[in-house]
Design a protein that fits this description.
4-stranded mixed β-sheet, two-stranded antiparallel ribbon, elongated, about 45% helix, CBS-domain, alpha+beta, about 180 residues
Amino acid sequence: MVIVQIMKPNGSDEPGAAAMALGDALAIVVQEARGFTAEDFSLLHPGSTLGRQLTLRIRDLMHSGDDLPIVPGNTPVSDALLVVTKKRLGTTLVVDDQGKLIGIFTDGDLRRLVSSGDNFLSRKVGEVMAKNPKRIDADALAVKGLKMMEDHKITALVIVDDLSRPVGIIHIHDILNSKLV
């Protein structure tokens, strides 16, 4: 057995950066030799950032039920804005007569309407919504949702059931507030 003592350059006996690097290297070697994975780590440390990234699902963070902002496509924009304001997600989902998702109306859409100078408040939200909003499965990892939002430069994703009816929405703030990153 060899014992190595690593000292700081000033001669103190407190372990320095080199000792910490050596300890990290040994930990990695043992981890690989035993087949210890990131998933194993997440089971032992579910509250850690890595643990949350490997276990936190969209369904754990999404808004659903009465918290879900939904309006029919024939709703006047002025009324849709009341739903956007009340639900406090910066958006409302737009559905057809069967409750199927047909679009999304966001605060960004509102800003574009205001800058157009159009008299839009009496128009139907179905005329001014964005069609085909980005969707994600409720069982997807939250980190995947964050990546989708970053990639598409959007702030919300929609969760739908097998019949394309909205069952949830997740906002980027939900993910950031979860301390996922």
